[in-house]
Amino acid sequence: MSGQLWYREAHNDYLQVLVETGVPGLAFALWAVTRMLRSLRAERWPWVGATAVLLHEFVDFDLQIPAIAVLLVVVAAAGKRADTSPPGEG
After folding, report:
1. What CA–CA distance (Å, rounded) separates 8 from 80?
2. Which of 6, 7, 35, 79 could form a disulfide with 43, with the two C-beta atoms 3.0–4.6 Å apart?
């Protein structure tokens, strides 16, 4: 090589999404993140956990590890489930 560096992945999942899918893909990803965090507002600890993972994505690509991605989905679903109660109860 002639002194060039080649990186396979960005150590930032948001930048990686932008490179792979363009502005529309990044806009969709940020919309989904915003919707998830809004749905978790009522539950403090699921919101904190999801926010911590999403902030960490700026400096690493942890969501490429299936266990962490599944855990984020489970936390989001548990927070959303706790937020929905039948009409007339609550």
Report:
1. 35
2. 79
